[in-house]
Amino acid sequence: MDRGKITERLYYLGIWFCLCTALLLLVLLATAYRANAQWSTDPASPLVICNAANAQGDLHTLPDGNGGWFAFWTDKRADGIHAELYGQHLDEAGHALWTANGLLIESEPDSTIAGVAPLLMPDGTLLVAYIYQPTGGWGGVIKVLHLDSNALPLWPAPLEIARGGSGPLGNISGFVGLRMMLSGNAAYVAWSYTPQGGNSRFAYELVALDGSVQFGSPGHAVPNTENSSQLSIHDDLAGGIIFVAKVGINSPLMAIRMDADGDPAWSADLQVSTNTSGLDYTYAFETAQTTMAIGNGELISVFMSGGDLPMARYDTSGTFTWTPTPFFACNESHGQREPRLVMNNGYLFMAWGDNRPPAGNEDLYVQKFDMNGTPLWAADGVAAIQTSTYIPRPDLVVSDSGGVIATFEGNTLGFAAMRMRSDGTMAWAAPAQFCTSAFNPFYERRDVLPDGEGGVVAFWESFVGDLHGARIYRNGVLGSAVGVEERDAFATVRTYPNPASDHITFELPVNEAVLGIEVLAVTGNSVGTFGRNATIDISALPSGAYTARIRTHAAIHTARFVKQ
Questions:
Q1: How far apart are the first and last CA of the chain?
Q2: How many angstroms separate the CA atoms of 544 and 558, rounded?
Q3: 3-class DSSP state for residue 65?
Q4: So what's the pLDDT on residue 35?
Q5: Of 221, 250, 272, which one is at a domain's C-terminal end?
Q6: DSSP structure string for 260-291
Q7: Which domain-ending residue is among 221, 246, 269?
Q8: What order of strands is seen across the sheet that includes strand 432-435?
Q9: Does residue 474 sit in the same domain as residue 493?
Q10: Which of 18, 438, 490, 544 has its CA 20 to 30 A from that of 144?
Q11: pLDDT, position 549
Q12: What is the DSSP track for 297-326?
């Protein structure tokens, strides 16, 4: 063979070797990244969502409807001064589906983004509202993004819905307390604003997926809300919106309903805290779990008053449906604070912090109520987590089989969870840790969500400004599916048709028969239980994504489906 051909072959061989080496390196890097970017099994090393330079904050997370989660936050990595909007999409196993350390979603020139509120729409797209404040200026602006599941914009530009400065609501100096709520195929965006020389009050806007709005900038004012702080917003099931808020100097808790046209729906606002001294202080203004919808437009609110926990139930006509009002969730002689509510299988569950002895500051208590407000567990609740604490905050999510999972953080235990069975007993021998105390959430800056399979997932901001996440499965195991029977069986169930509109069938492994099926919404709430038939009627379910837990003699299988 002549020297030229040898040289040519060596040349192509070298190229082939380089390509193979590069491909192998890419595979190894991808494998290493995925191995590291998944739920941690070590509480001393929780999953990092973002640890970019400078501070990350205002973290908000929500289920993606397919077993994973979206996360959005403000981020000062660029210069330490101006915050931008970043996001991440995590799959069920905790793998980051967007850019590592977060994807830049939006940046406003010479401004800082100061508030975020995301919402998953029925078609699987996202609306993300945010507030930004011009550097050195005042007034603020609220905009809304419409994104697909890959964070690609679906509108030509962000939709501006409110701008501060001089206008029909006064000379607005800024916006805070951003909230979003689904209303059919549109979304309500609500916020608190402060006119110059006045006290804060509420306004809101209805935003459609085509980018149209109902009222126009700077939003629609809510009457009788001067000197108020927003707690939560709720669907009145008639196209309107219900605000539940602390209003006025003496701190009563009020419910205010606005109809679909933007007019007051009641002749007078409802004082939810009637027959009490009102709210003790503003501890609960950042959570919607102090008031929740229970169906047919009814709401239940719980609040702290005089160190006790009164609660009231009322309907969309502004009428109390429990008498006398209030009922007391707990009025044990010591102090109770920061209550949280969830509904599961037609029962009300509540968690709170409690300083009764032998608490080292506070312990975490949980109680179950029927819909008449009658407590069903031990008087004054069951101690779920007892640990030395500093400034703990309870959270509560639904689990399967009628149970709940309560979470708490402590100085020695760290950020932890306990699953409570429907009968009030503890499902785990000891609390399971999301993380050790070195990584504890910084005050209230965390989201705790059901994982849709009976477990719990948490996302939080640490003291140093990094963002973390962790998942505890229904058996109390941190970040690993090993030993969780239903997850081992996940791939063995075929579901058809999927999506479905009226009936759906689960095809099980050979020689296994259905003993029962429980269907869970993406929130983790049980929406129905079914008998021994592998085909179930889902015609009554609202459109959306669901998880089915199918019990057999051999296992508990998990399958997901979409109702059209």
A1: 68
A2: 17
A3: coil
A4: 38
A5: 221
A6: TTSSBSSSS-EETTTTS---SSSTTTT-STTE
A7: 221
A8: 395-398, 404-410, 414-420, 432-435
A9: no
A10: 544
A11: 84
A12: TEEEEE--BTTBEEEEEE-TTS-B-SSSS-
Q: 423 is written with which tokens? A: 């009968």
Provide the token pair at 198: 């006045």
Residue 37: per-residue pLDDT:
55
Are 516 and 457 found together in one domain? no
Whether residues 339 and 364 fall in one domain: yes
Query: Could you read off the pLDDT of 84-117 as tens digits, one per residue?
Result: 999 999 999 999 999 999 999 999 999 999 999 9
Please tell me the predicted confidence (pLDDT) of residue 34: 41
Q: Are 449 and 384 members of one domain? A: yes
The pLDDT score that the predictor gives to residue 529 is 83
Same domain, yes or no: 74 and 149? yes
Distance CA 386, CA 363 (A): 5
Strand segments (E) across 395-533: 395-398, 404-410, 414-420, 432-435, 441-450, 456-462, 467-472, 494-496, 503-507, 516-521, 526-530
Structural element, H or E, at residue 431: none
CA-CA-CA-CA torsion sign (197, 198, 200, 205): negative
What pLDDT is recorded for position 516? 84
Contact 235, 293 (CB under 8 A): yes
- Gap between the Cα atoms of 258 and 241, Å rounded: 5
Q: Give me the pLDDT at residue 78, please.
A: 95
Tell me, yes or no, whether 370 lies in a domain.
Answer: yes
Q: Could you count the other beta carbons within 10 Å of the beta carbon of residue 208? A: 16
pLDDT for 18:
43
d(CA 545, CA 495) in angstroms, rounded, equals 13
Domain that holds residue 124: 45-221
- Look at the chain and report how many structural domains it folds into: 3
Q: Of 486, 361, 468, 479, give the one whose Cα is nearest residue 102.
A: 468
Q: What's the pLDDT score for residue 32?
A: 39
Burial 520-545 (b: 16+ CB within 10 A, else e): bbbebebbbebeeebebebeebeeeb
- How far apart CA 502 and CA 292 sit, in angstroms, is 29
Buried b / exposed e over 476-488, threshold 16 CB at 10 Å, is bbbbebeebebbe
pLDDT score, position 440: 95
> What does the alpha-carbon distance between residue 316 and residue 255 come to, in Å, rounded to a whole number?
10
In-domain check, residue 476 = yes
Determine the Cα–Cα distance for residues 552 and 564; give it in Å rounded to an integer.
27
Mapped onto helix, strand or coil, the DSSP state of residue 335 is coil
DSSP 35: H
Residues of the chain predicted below pLDDT 50: 1-36, 283-288, 482-491
Same-domain status, 64 and 149: yes
What are the angstrom distances between the C-alpha of 112 and each of 57, 135, 382? 12, 7, 44
Q: Which of 215, 288, 295 is nearest to 444 (CA)?
A: 288
Check residue 527 and give its pLDDT: 82
Tell me, yes or no, whether 11 lies in a domain.
no
Rounded distance between C-alpha atoms, residue 340 and residue 404, angstroms: 12
- Are 138 and 132 a contacting pair, CB within 8 Å? no
Domain-located, residue 302: no
